[in-house]
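Per-record layout

source: Halomonas beimenensis
name: Putative metal chaperone, involved in Zn homeostasis, GTPase of COG0523 family
length: 338
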Amino acid sequence: MPTPLTDIPVHPITGFLGSGKSSLIRHLIEHKPEGERWAVLINEFGRVGIDQALVAGRDDVVVRALPGGCLCCQLATVLQAALVELLRRERPDRLIIEPSGLGHPAGLLDLLQGEAFAGVLALREVVAVLDPRRLEDPRALAQATFRDQLALADGIALTMTDLVSASGLDAARDWLADELPGDPWVEEAPHGRLPIARVLGSGRHRDRRGAGQPAAHRALTGRRAAWLDLEAEAPRPGHPVFLRGEALGQVSLGWRWHPDEAFDRGALLDCLDGLAGELRLKGVFRTGAGWMAVNRVHGHETPTPSEWRRDSRLEVIGPAETLPDPRALQARLAACLL
């Protein structure tokens, strides 16, 4: 009989769309203590599932994805079952959970501290990843989910600091000190490089259950995500799979292409550069020059090599009025194939 699982440290890494959560998790994995086995559970708003391709697994790190909804509300029951299975099968020494950038963490934290995982999981400090430039955007500040992600965190990791002036960083620190309860720690993490000791050596989460889910999330709680009723369709050469999702004021457009199809790298990047800069865009692509990953927040991030080899994928997320016509975009992407 296997030894019972007890007090497995679990580290939620929260943050709004495009804040740099995946980069921070990749950095943690790269500096993982030798001898530890990790499990990483990634939730994505989009239905295609890109972040699992951006965070490569290893023999000592297993990565699981829950795409197509918010695990804090739409996928809450699915999350509990997925966690039970993941813990039973993989028996990790440590668990990292990345909720969707649109996810409100209250439901997740309640589950992790609830009866189902009592004595099994030990909830450690919640780290919220923040691009300081978001604090200058009135639309972000008006988002209850954005503010609550910060308010429920024990610490704030400031990413994209190379794109912010010294005065901008000072202003961000002042805002956080004035607006957030509990005096969370604040540390710079350019390109996701948060010192791993800050996470692994963290204490328990300081419970703030007074922050309930906003009405938009409560309305989705218990509602089964539509994609869960569908069998995943495999793309065929010349016939990519297209998936659309919508919730919480955002729409996702996603595609998957057969792994034998390859893109012209230059033509593909030109096509993606033509999309509106405010759109959240991420993908992995097989190109004539090798596999690459694209992870754009403000329309200028440089592509990087990718270890993903299963298929090419693209996800575009934004308010409905900012998105391109999906049929026209699919045709432009098809013209980029070799």
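summary: The chain is about 25% helix and 25% strand. Residues 235-334 form a domain with the Hypothetical Protein Yjia; Chain: A;domain 2 fold (CATH 3.30.1220).
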